[in-house]
């Protein structure tokens, strides 16, 4: 079906009018159509001002010409020209009614899939083996998963890959430690952080152990079978732990998406050869390096991307070079996206520069989707009392416990449903707190704020949804495309909001900015509650009005469920 985006519809008509009136070509995205904040006006077009300047004509005259040539076909009233040359659009009631009614029969709520699907390799979560995941990995997992869902819904093909830190020098000491002290019984290694730290302590204090560890790295990298088996044990143990967190969080990554650093090991040699053959490398202190243009430290020295260390080993950067080449050349990705904390911004900028120089990014979009830190109440990067970075699993348990207290306050639900609801609310709150702010900014983690029932929180949205569902349960079933009538301003405001879903999704998807969807869902819930205050639904004056208002409630509920779902957040029917 035809997309319902109102701004697109207006943009198309304005662009056509400009073509006819002034013989100027404008792309519809540049038509500067925006939701109006003025009372009684739905949308405005701000193009006449810049266009007037460009053509050397008074903007009001340009605006008048646009109006004279507009073909509106019943979409809107002929716009009024305001101020310096704004066009103020008021949509026709009948057109709006017909558009909103049509949403009822559409699974996608009027949001058309993209006409230009891409094949997008998306690196997210990417924790390190033999270390517990911490809140830093929470953000990558939650933001990355929301982006994956948004891109898929938009009609793109997503190739998720979990770039596990499962290779490199620390594995020498970890394997030696595991061989020295095999874990007792079936319970496995247990606390991975403690295990890692014990190995580290031994490495730092015991010279013989350190030597054995270094030899073990060589064995690992040369493919020694016994070594690989122990290494695999460590990887499996960690993967079990990661999967547990993903399951708790509702993250869609599976074992099939694991492409750890070790996966790229066989490709590393070729990568160096190719960069050398291209004349891109230099020897620096015995290491093979590429110095991409434009990267310097404060002293003005050029910064290297180390491709092969002087001992012949490969590091993080080399693996990322192989990763980029693999997904573009072997897997045909048109986009490379990396959801990784902002401190790695320079690494990715240098990586992309080298890949571009090597010709691996021709026609490929590469982007680092950075994010800020999670801060504790003291404004510092969040830590537990022992001074370690907070463990993710503990944090999530805590979220569910806290949420149980919130939902228990006024609930007639049975024990099972109560537990499921507490989980949806608690996990939802943690995820929403992570998603609802601009991702590049740090944010402060506070239970009270994230579990608040008022304001832009998932709890507010979940309650709004459950309240609507309880109205709908009383209303009874009605046809999917029950006709919507828009007599009252509050009905009209809700209809306009519902028709903006596609715009909100597009903004959230193209900017990898889930917070734009959060803001939209919050506005939708607030607009619904105003409508509900002003317009009786079940007790509407006529059967037609009741049907229409129930239909508006249905569409609001469906928008909240679909929107929250794209953020990876559940919306229980009852709260
Ligand atoms: N394992 C890394 C870390 O915990 C993140 C990896 C991100 N992905 C990548 N391709 N470099 O910091």
TrEMBL record:
Catalytic activity: tRNA(Arg) + L-arginine + ATP = L-arginyl-tRNA(Arg) + AMP + diphosphate
A Gene Ontology BP annotation from the UniProt entry: arginyl-tRNA aminoacylation
Coiled coil start-end: none
InterPro entries named among the record's database cross-references: aa-tRNA-synth_I_CS, Arg-tRNA-ligase, Arg-tRNA-synth_N, Arg-tRNA-synth_N_sf, ArgRS_core, DALR_anticod-bd, Rossmann-like_a/b/a_fold, tRNAsynth_Ia_anticodon-bd
Source taxon at top rank: Bacteria
Class in the EC hierarchy, top level: ligase
Localization terms from the record: Cytoplasm
Sequence motif 'HIGH' region, location on chain: 127-137
E.C. no: 6.1.1.19
Domain annotation DALR anticodon binding: ranges: 461-575
GO molecular function, one term: ATP binding
Keyword Ligase: yes
Pfam families named in the record: Arg_tRNA_synt_N, DALR_1, tRNA-synt_1d
Boundaries of every Arginyl tRNA synthetase N-terminal domain copy: 8-91
Keywords on record: Aminoacyl-tRNA synthetase, ATP-binding, Cytoplasm, Ligase, Nucleotide-binding, Protein biosynthesis
Matches recorded under PROSITE patterns: AA_TRNA_LIGASE_I
GO cellular component annotations of the record: cytoplasm
tRNA processing is among the record's keywords: no
Family: Belongs to the class-I aminoacyl-tRNA synthetase family.
Subunit comment: Monomer.
Cross-referenced HAMAP family: Arg_tRNA_synth
Protein's UniProt name: Arginine--tRNA ligase
Gene: argS
